[in-house]
């Protein structure tokens, strides 16, 4: 009778005793089969179906079961959170939940840990999020040891919170310690390096949380294999309709650049098109920035085109005319809690200096950042200005007005920035507003803003789909 032996070795499963196994390849160094650790459960299932005895030394979840106590009374799940959790459980405790910023994704993760009832690793993109998750888990599971990996912390407990960077560095040694892994902001996991975290873990239970699962590079298509497919999602419109989030409106203002800026922009774009024509001919179609970057390493003309494109973008994104419009908006909305978003730190500093508004960038120290956010929460500051650092990974206090001075136009960035405004106000009276400033007659109008519109249209189509599903469920 065949008998197989399974061992965990540096992020892989070593299989001895048999000559063939799905998901596995022969290791020429040792003459035994080896598979990525993520296939552990499939390997075990295959052996059972094949009637092959198994000596299993992998022991996923080798850490003791955490003492999670009774279901928390700190905060009850909302109906959509419960549906998300139930859908995840029905899918074998694997899959991704897509919920808008401010809708309580963390609580879904907390209750997933409780439902799994096993050692769990939570992976997050930033140290701020590591601290936030640690605090939430400590409140909900006061009797469980909460470990931390990242920012100088190096402790492993039955429930551990790690940054993606630290998990990436340590996964080969801890990949069989946890039965559940929760990937917060799961879109990060699809990156070429970070995906090895999922590949080298044996955890049979996996949960991905995000507000926007799509990536510009399309790598989100790999997430079903790494974590599981989308098992539940709800759009901002749907949750606003049910008063779980604040209703919102979006206003786009076209800004006429200063005459000298427009002249400079057109000159630079003309040179860009001349370079592209020389490279690809006059009948070229749109070229991706990725292809241009790859070509720029060996083609001086491609490099010149890339530099011209970037200069034109900087002129449009950082037009001085936007500051005049911003001044009017701030005057019209005096006393309204406002977050101003920009693409570049240089504009952050200009806005901060001109309007005496506190700023937060990636260079802002932890204590200063906490003081600014606390001051915004308490009302000492009615406005803050930031670049990309508040798009995700930071718990931002309630705001009513958002102003996008500039940005990339990516769907994720747009939805994340909108989500910063959607926490419902007291008594449900709040209505959020997002104002987008766009330089007229530039790619910012024809390309960047158009991408934001498509992101919003997609979210609204999702709302319509959800409404149709609810109506169908009600009829049946």
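Q: What amino acid sequence fits the structure above?
A:
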């Amino acid at each position: 009778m065949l008998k197989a032996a399974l061992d965990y070795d540096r992020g892989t499963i070593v299989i001895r005793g048999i000559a063939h196994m799905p998901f596995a390849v022969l290791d020429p160094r040792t003459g035994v089969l080896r598979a990525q650790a993520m296939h552990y459960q499939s390997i075990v299932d295959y052996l059972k179906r094949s009637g092959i005895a198994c000596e299993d030394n992998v022991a996923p979840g080798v850490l003791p079961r955490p003492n999670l106590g009774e279901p928390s009374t700190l905060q009850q799940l909302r109906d959509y959170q419960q549906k998300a959790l139930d859908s995840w459980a029905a899918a074998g405790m694997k899959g991704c939940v897509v919920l808008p910023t401010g809708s309580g994704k963390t609580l879904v993760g907390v209750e997933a840990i409780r439902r799994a009832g096993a050692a769990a690793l939570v992976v997050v993109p930033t140290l701020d999020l590591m601290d936030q998750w640690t605090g939430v888990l400590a409140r909900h599971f006061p009797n469980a040891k909460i470990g931390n990996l990242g920012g100088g912390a190096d402790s492993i407990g039955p429930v551990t919170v790690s940054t993606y960077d630290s998990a990436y560095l340590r996964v080969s040694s801890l990949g069989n310690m946890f039965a559940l892994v929760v990937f917060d902001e799961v879109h990060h996991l699809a990156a070429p390096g970070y995906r090895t975290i999922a590949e080298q873990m044996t955890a049979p239970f996996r949960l991905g949380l995000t507000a926007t699962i799509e990536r510009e590079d399309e790598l989100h298509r790999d997430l079903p294999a790494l974590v599981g497919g989308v098992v539940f999602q709800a759009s901002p419109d749907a949750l606003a309709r049910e008063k779980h989030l604040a209703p919102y409106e979006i206003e786009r203002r076209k800004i006429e650049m200063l005459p000298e800026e427009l002249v400079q922009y057109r000159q630079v774009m003309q040179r860009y098109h001349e370079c592209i024509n020389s490279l690809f001919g006059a009948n070229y179609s749109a070229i991706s920035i990725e292809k241009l970057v790859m070509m720029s390493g060996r083609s001086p003309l491609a490099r010149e085109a890339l530099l011209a494109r970037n200069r034109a973008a900087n002129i449009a994104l950082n037009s001085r005319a936007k500051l005049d419009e911003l001044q009017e908006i701030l005057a019209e909305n005096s006393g309204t809690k406002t977050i101003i978003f920009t693409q570049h730190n240089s504009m952050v500093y200009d806005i901060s200096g001109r309007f005496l508004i506190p700023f937060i960038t990636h260079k802002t120290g932890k204590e200063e950042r906490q003081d600014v956010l606390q001051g915004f929460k308490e009302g000492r500051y009615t406005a803050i200005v930031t670049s990309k650092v508040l798009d995700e990974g930071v718990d931002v206090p309630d705001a009513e007005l958002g102003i996008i001075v500039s940005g990339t136009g990516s769907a994720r960035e747009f939805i994340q920035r909108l989500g910063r405004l959607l926490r419902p106000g007291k008594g449900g009276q709040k209505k959020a507003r997002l104002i987008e400033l766009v330089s007229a007659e530039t790619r910012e109008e024809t390309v960047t803003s158009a991408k934001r519109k498509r992101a919003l249209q997609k979210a609204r189509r999702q709302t319509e789909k959800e409404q149709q599903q609810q109506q169908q469920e009600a009829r049946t």
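Q: And what stands out in the fold?
A: The chain has 16 helices and 19 strands.
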